């Protein structure tokens, strides 16, 4: 006689769960996670539920904060050397740091956050015209680029726009935030050039080395909106991942939720007024031959939302370039041979996006 276990009976009597159908129904609304919250849901839909993992984090008061005051003063070499040493240490040990006195006025930062909030809080019918699953478009709004392939959806909506090397004009952008997107991207490009100089020097190279490799040529602004979540312990705002670019500069509001995996422990990145978060991307880890670290990070869901952030990705992923990137030859030696094979930026990013946010670093695929 066959024995049927209790959990098998419970499973057999569960209503049939059609995940793909639920995902499509959600996607077809073009209203995103904000649409669910606006509809008054009190429980997280099943396709957002993440596998159980600890959400507690160490607040770590020693998260690196670097004062860039004097960064471009070549007549004060001692100060610049101090900044370069701090950038080197943070890039090697954390892969993350915050910068203050970076040259972008606080009013511009505040207006950028407000502009993102205005985009998401306008009528759904207005936003829908930007909604698309096609990642090749220069302006994209959707909820979860990997909605149909990820193990669980993230509790956030996203829109992004490609702002360099060929900047978009105001009529190509959402009217409620077009001016600030253009203004902010110009400021970030200037800051990015300075950061790549510091990173070049931190690698022991000429200040222009990374810029001459076109690391600072492409820029995408990725604007996230994390609505308040009724059951934040069941899902994540953004799953564990590393960034598939050269460098990311992140603006976050005061809600908090960003965490970095440091020494096998999740550490909160505290919102600091006027500061920007900078993190090493996979491609910079690859070309630095593991000298700099592209750290995994995530965003926890919370009930205090909505949380707004703007991640600026330095990457040329949408350019039709066959330029190959591998470990920088000046950094190699018999004791430090290349650890990665060469790849184009487009090939790396295509592979990374094809995987989705599955928690496994795409860098492993390119190891020699």
TrEMBL record:
Keyword line: Iron, Metal-binding, Oxidoreductase, Vitamin C
GO biological process: coumarin biosynthetic process; response to molecule of fungal origin
Designated name of the protein: Fe2OG dioxygenase domain-containing protein
The family this protein is said to belong to: Belongs to the iron/ascorbate-dependent oxidoreductase family.
Originating species: Cinchona calisaya
Domain Fe2OG dioxygenase: 215-317
Matches recorded under Gene3D superfamilies: B-lactam Antibiotic, Isopenicillin N Synthase, Chain
InterPro entries registered for this protein in UniProt: DIOX_N, IPNS-like_FE2OG_OXY, IPNS-like_sf, Oxoglu/Fe-dep_dioxygenase_dom
PANTHER family in alphabetical order: 1-AMINOCYCLOPROPANE-1-CARBOXYLATE OXIDASE HOMOLOG 1-LIKE (PTHR10209:SF841), OXIDOREDUCTASE, 2OG-FE II OXYGENASE FAMILY PROTEIN (PTHR10209)
GO molecular-function terms, A-Z: 2-oxoglutarate-dependent dioxygenase activity; L-ascorbic acid binding; metal ion binding
Annotated Pfam families: 2OG-FeII_Oxy, DIOX_N
UniProt keyword annotation of ATP-binding present: no
């Amino acid at each position: 006689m066959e024995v049927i276990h209790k959990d098998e009976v419970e499973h057999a009597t569960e209503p049939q769960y059609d995940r793909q159908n639920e995902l499509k129904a959600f996607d077809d609304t073009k209203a995103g996670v904000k649409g669910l919250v606006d509809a008054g849901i009190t429980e997280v839909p099943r396709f957002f539920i993440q596998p159980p993992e600890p959400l507690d984090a160490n607040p770590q008061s020693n998260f690196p904060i670097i004062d860039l005051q004097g960064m471009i003063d070549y007549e004060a070499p001692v100060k610049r050397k101090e900044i370069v040493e701090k950038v080197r240490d943070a890039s090697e040990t954390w892969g993350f740091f915050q910068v203050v006195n970076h040259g972008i006025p606080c009013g511009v930062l505040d207006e950028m956050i407000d502009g993102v909030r205005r985009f998401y809080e306008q009528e759904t019918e207005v936003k829908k015209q930007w909604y698309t699953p096609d990642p090749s478009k220069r302006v994209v709004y959707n909820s979860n680029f990997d909605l149909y392939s990820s193990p669980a959806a993230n509790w956030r909506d996203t829109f992004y726009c490609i702002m360099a090397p060929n900047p978009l004009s105001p009529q190509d952008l959402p009217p409620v935030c077009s001016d600030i997107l253009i203004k902010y991207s110009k400021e970030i490009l200037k800051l990015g050039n300075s950061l790549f100089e510091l990173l070049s020097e931190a690698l022991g190279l000429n200040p222009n080395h990374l810029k001459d490799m076109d690391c600072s040529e492409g820029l995408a602004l990725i604007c996230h909106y994390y609505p308040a979540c009724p059951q934040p312990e069941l899902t994540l705002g953004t799953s564990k991942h590393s960034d598939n670019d050269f460098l990311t500069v992140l603006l976050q509001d005061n809600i908090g939720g960003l965490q970095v995996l440091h020494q096998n422990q999740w550490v909160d990145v505290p919102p600091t007024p006027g500061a920007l978060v900078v993190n090493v991307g996979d491609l910079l880890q690859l070309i630095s031959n593991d000298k700099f670290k592209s750290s995994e990070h995530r965003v926890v869901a919370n009930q205090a939302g909505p949380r707004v952030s703007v991640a600026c990705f330095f990457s040329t992923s949408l350019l039709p370039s066959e330029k190959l990137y591998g470990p920088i030859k000046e950094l190699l030696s018999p004791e430090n041979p290349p650890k990665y094979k060469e790849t184009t930026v487009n090939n790396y990013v295509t592979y990374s996006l094809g995987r989705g946010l599955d928690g496994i670093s795409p860098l492993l695929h390119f190891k020699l």
